[in-house]
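User: Good morning. I'm curious how 2'-deoxycytidine-5'-monophosphate would be positioned relative to this chain. Could you predict the structure with it bound?
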Amino acid sequence: MENKKIIIAIDGYSSSGKSTMARRLASEIGYRYIDSGAMYRAVTLYAMRNGLITPDGTVDKEHLVNALKNIAIDFKVDDGKQLTTLNGEVVESEIRSMDVSNLVSIIAAIPEVRHDLVAKQQALGNSKGIVMDGRDIGTTVFPDAEMKIFVDASPETRAIRRYRELTEKGQSTTFEEVLANVVKRDHLDRTREESPLKCADDAIKIDNSNMTPDEQNKLLMDIFRKITC
Ligand code: DC
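Assistant: Good morning! Here's the predicted structure, ligand included:
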């Protein structure tokens, strides 16, 4: 298809549908898709399993920072699905649990964790041809990305989507719990000192509250073609 390979940064609020948009775009244009949130979730799961964070969110920061060198996060594709691995173990379903969701913003606010993961994300984008989604991809990870998108939707719309996703996977939760988690994460992501969630000045903003997946995909494909052709 197009021969000029670029970096595509898709940022936005939690459960805004950015991962679905990013994954579909990457598959249509033959790019690699990276879910940077999965990397923060994998570090959180590691911390939980190793007693480095308590259920109320108290972190043993010194030991966690020391352990970062022992945490290998990767992605493998199985039957068309991208699966996150933590030290070789597939942890795709564990990292999506409410327990991890409730603690991940605390781990993601630790500067040393961010520096480590940002360096890994930048390395993944070395040869371009990548779609990466997250919170700070267009601002910190790839400030020179050729295509930047910022996705938003109302907290209620996002909580409904997340609630459906979780219950479809058989996880037990309530809509109220999911909405509270979405609102709390928005606040923590926006107000943390290190790379807070914000729209890059040169990003294209999309509110997808009332858009179908096909409409979102068409919009992204139009933007991509304009940039690369
Ligand atoms: O996209 P997500 O909900 O899976 O992300 C999980 C958490 O990780 C979210 O609360 C914010 C954090 N995150 C981040 O700080 N920076 C990123 N680039 C991606 C995610």
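The longest helix spans residues 175-191. The chain has nine helices and eight strands.
Let me know if you'd like a different ligand tried.
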